[in-house]
Every structure is written in structure tokens, then in C-alpha cells.
Amino acid sequence: MEAIRNYLETMFANLPNTPEVLRAKNELWQMMEDKYNELVADGKSDNEAVGTVIAEFGNLDEISEDLGIRNVVTETHDITRRKVTMEEVKKYIHESSSYAYKISLGVFLCIISPIGPILSEEVNFSSIIGVLSLMTFIATAVILFVHSSITIHRWDFLKEELCTIDFATTNYVHDQKERYTSTYALLMTVGIVLCVISFVPAAIIDELDISFFGFDTDDMAGVLLFLFVAIGVFMIILSYNINNTYTSILKLNNASTISGNYVPSQHPETKYISPAAATIMSVYWQTITCIYLMWSFLTFNWHYTWIIWPIAGIISGVLNSTFKKH
């Protein structure tokens, strides 16, 4: 029955998602199911039953008039879409996850790169050692950025071309996304919390004048701050990119067709009144994050720079209601 269901979904995939088409689809499914059960009851094997059902009901052009959707099938101008197979999707998810790890690790190395000069000064090493460690971290990060970008480049067609995935592939990706939801929420929450409270260890060390094996407390406070922020940003970037991989695949199907509504994750995205408004909202939270980190690092007033988040949330709500197309 699963093979018949997949075939049915493929038949209706590019038809408009209207009550008329949905009624016809459900009616045809009932006919297919009844015929399959009848054949199995007569002693036919599963493969024989499936083949007979598809042969009898598998041509939508021939049965569309009986289903009352002849005009819809005739008027539907199917825009050619590249079909992305299950194997391609699995490979893309694997390589995209690897890309997310490399990008996240590269950002992590960039953030902690100043730790080398700080520690080398503390242990009375030559300043050259500190500079070399800093440059090594940054060079490694650049290598990760370049290598990951080149590797993922071959999947650019998913963004540049009209693509589609079938019913079985959609369900697979949706299940993977649902399983990742708890991990995504945990990583995002912990990452944001680490960034917000990154000043706390520094404040405690400075207030209590705690000694770290002879290291200067101010320098160690700086080291811990960089580590907290680096780990937090690593978690945020990693979880966001992996979750976005599943979302981008589920958005491949045309939202106005049957295939664009297989799962809730394929529902149409929010439409804005203009391309400029859409661009603003697409980079809004990334911009807020950059402003927060720049403001915090330049002033080191972490105890009140967090106020940017509730303010940004209020502004986001206002902008959404203003720019959203009703």
C-alpha cells in the first residue's frame, strides 16, 4: 500500500492545492485501496496487486474526467522542476551538517584566537609565540571556511533551480527535522545563555580576586569570557545551520501545489510587502546579534547590554506587522 500511496502523491504533486483537487485525490485513493484489498483477497501477491492498481488507475489524464478535475489537469501548466532523489537528499544533509560543523568551528577558533597572546604573556613566553598562535587559529579558521564553501558549492542548484522532492523523501526529511527539534532547542538555548552570562566569570574573578596558579586574574577573566562566547556562538551557528538544512529541503516544493503541503513544514513562508522588507527581516536577528556582541565587547558592560534582546523582540513584532503582506 505504501507504493500505491507514493504513486498517488506523485500523480497529484503538481496540481493546485484546492478543495476540488483534494476531493478527487481522496476519492482516487479510496478506489485504489478498495481495488488493492479486493485483489489481495482473491489471492494476488502484494506486488501483483500493486501493479494491477497502478495499471488501472495510474493515468490521471484518462481518469481525470471521472474525478471531475479534467479542466484542472488540462489547464495545469507544469513548470519543469528538477526532481531531487532520496539518495541526493541524504547526501546533502550529510554534507550540509559537515559544512555547519566546519563553519562553527572556524568561528570558534576566530573568537578564541586572542587567548594565545594573553596566555603567552602570562607565562613570560616571547610575544612571537602568542602572535603565532593567534595567526595559526585564524589561518585554520580560514582553511575551514574555504574548504567547506568549496565542498558545499555543488549543491547550489537547490537554491538556483526549481526543484522538487517526492512524498517519501518529504516524510523522511520531516521526521529527521522533528527528531532534531529538541537538540536544536537545547543548543540554541545554551548557546544564547552562554553569550549572555559570559561576563559573569570575569565579574566573579574580579570581585573575589581569585588566583589561578599565579596567573593575573584580569587576564584569566578575559580568557574565560572569550571561551564562554566562543562555545555559545559555536552552538548557535551549528544548530541554526543544521536546522536550516532540513527547512530548506522542505521548502523545495511549490507551496501552492499538493506536494507543497505534504507536511506542516512546507506551508508557505511569510510574504512581505516588498523585496526590501523581506531582505530586512531575513537579516534582522543576525544584525541584532552582531550589534549585541560588538556593543558588549567594546564596552564590556555585559551586565546591561542584554537589554537589547527584549527591545529587539518588541521591534521585531512591530516590523513584522508593518511589513507583512495581509
Descriptors:
single chain; 326 residues; 16 helices; elongated
Describe this structure in words.
The chain has 326 residues and is an all-alpha fold. Helix content is 75%, strand content 1%. It is elongated and about 85 Å long.
Q: Record the strand order, biggest sheet.
A: 1-2
Averaged pLDDT? 80
Helicity, in percent? over 70%
Find the structural class using helix and strand composition.
mainly alpha
Please outline what is shown here.
The protein is an all-alpha fold and 326 residues long. The protein has helices at residues 2-12, 19-41, 46-57, 60-67, 70-75, 86-112, 115-122, 127-152, 157-160, 167-196, 199-208, 217-250, 275-282, 284-299, 302-305, 308-323, and strands at 82-83, 163-164.
Write the layout of secondary structure elements.
Layout: H1 2-12, H2 19-41, H3 46-57, H4 60-67, H5 70-75, E1 82-83, H6 86-112, H7 115-122, H8 127-152, H9 157-160, E2 163-164, H10 167-196, H11 199-208, H12 217-250, H13 275-282, H14 284-299, H15 302-305, H16 308-323
Parallel strand pairs: 1-2
Helix pairs in contact: 1-2, 2-3, 6-8, 6-12, 7-8, 7-12, 10-12, 11-12, 14-16
